[in-house]
Specification:
Helix 6 (128-135) links the parallel strand 3 and strand 4. The chain has 311 residues and is α/β, with parallel strands linked by helices. It starts with a helix and ends in a 34-residue tail after the last helix. The chain has one domain (28-58, 115-304). The chain is built from twelve helices and eight strands. The chain is globular. Residues 26-30 have low confidence and may be disordered. It has an eight-stranded parallel β-sheet with strand order 1-4-3-2-8-7-5-6, sandwiched between helices. The longest helix has 18 residues, at 2-19.
Length: 311
């Protein structure tokens, strides 16, 4: 009952802000909200320290679905709404499209929340403050841009110099090719230093894509974890949709460092995407040496994903 009352209080506050047309407000209770420079310094220092560490972000669809699974668990609703099921399967690549499977996903996310050291927040999602203050209250927070190395005086990626880095992302070939041209990608050479690069091709199941190797999303998650762990590494940089958050948690529990950068991972390797080309703050970063993902890396139905935002 106490959980339901607490959730209800946050829900009521979020509803009032919606009616009054106010932006959702994140409440940081006794936790420092780091600016981009401080967040990058923190990540860089933790990488140099070498201890298990998890910096991450929620996908907006995953956050909304996680909240719906909590509502089902608390008896507030009987099932996850169809809109959330659609978002999980099309945008986030979840499968199969079954209520019990998505409920299992929600519980996995709740468990993974306990491993977070630094969480990049949206500050625009209703009920985000409930998740932060209830499920991730042990972490430090920054905004989404603070997790990226592009806007900091000293990018956290500088700490990757000389490290063994595994990048888990569906654009495996593009990342390898672009890293060979790394000196052409950024005016600030600190953003992409010299390190030992290994890639793991992420399972691509967005937009209704199927991968017959796996019976469900959880098998695909375990496969990527096992692939990452096949060889020693120091830091994992992760951009693989809804897989990323729990994958980072699993890697931290295995004693590794994991940065779940999400969609912006492709930017680190000079790979264009329509989402960022449309934003003013990225225009000074993107240059003529950046390339779009290879045609082989564009799945059927890519247009269903926010207007081909990654391509």
């Amino acid at each position: 009952m106490i959980r339901q009352l607490k959730y209800g209080a946050y829900f009521f506050a979020a509803g009032c802000r919606h009616v009054l047309k106010l932006q959702p407000k994140v409440k940081y209770d006794n936790v420092k909200h780091l600016d981009a420079n401080a967040a990058n310094r923190l990540i860089g220092s933790r990488i140099r320290l070498g201890e298990p560490f998890m910096a991450c972000r929620f996908g907006s669809g995953e956050m909304r679905t996680f909240l719906k699974t909590l509502e089902v668990d608390m008896g507030i609703r009987r099932s996850i709404p169809e809109a959330n099921m659609d978002s999980m399967c099309i945008n986030a690549g979840f499968f199969p499209r079954q209520q019990d499977a998505v409920m299992r996903f929600g519980r996995l996310m709740g468990d993974a929340c306990r491993d977070v050291d630094l969480l990049a927040t949206w500050d625009t999602l209703p009920m985000e403050n409930y998740v932060l203050n209830t499920w991730v209250n042990q972490a430090l927070y920054c905004y989404l841009s603070g997790l990226e190395p592009f806007f900091a005086d000293i990018p956290w990626t500088l700490a990757l110099e000389g490290k063994r880095v595994v990048v888990i992302h569906p654009f495996e070939d593009s990342i390898r090719q672009q890293y060979q041209r790394k000196d052409l990608l950024f005016p600030d050479k600190k953003i992409l230093p010299e390190f030992s690069l290994r890639t793991v091709k992420a399972v691509q199941t967005i937009a209704g894509q199927k991968d017959e190797r796996f019976s469900d999303w959880f098998e695909a998650l375990e496969y990527m974890y096992e692939e990452a762990m096949k060889e020693p590494f120091d830091v994992a940089v992760i951009g693989c949709g809804a897989y990323g958050f729990p994958l980072a948690s699993k890697l931290k529990r295995a004693g590794r460092q994991a940065i779940h950068l999400g969609g912006a991972t492709q930017l680190l390797f000079g790979i264009r995407g329509q989402r960022w080309e449309a934003k003013e703050e990225y225009k000074d970063i993107i240059n003529e040496n950046w390339r779009r993902p290879l045609k082989s890396e564009r799945p059927e139905g890519a247009g269903k994903i926010e207007g081909s935002c990654y391509w």
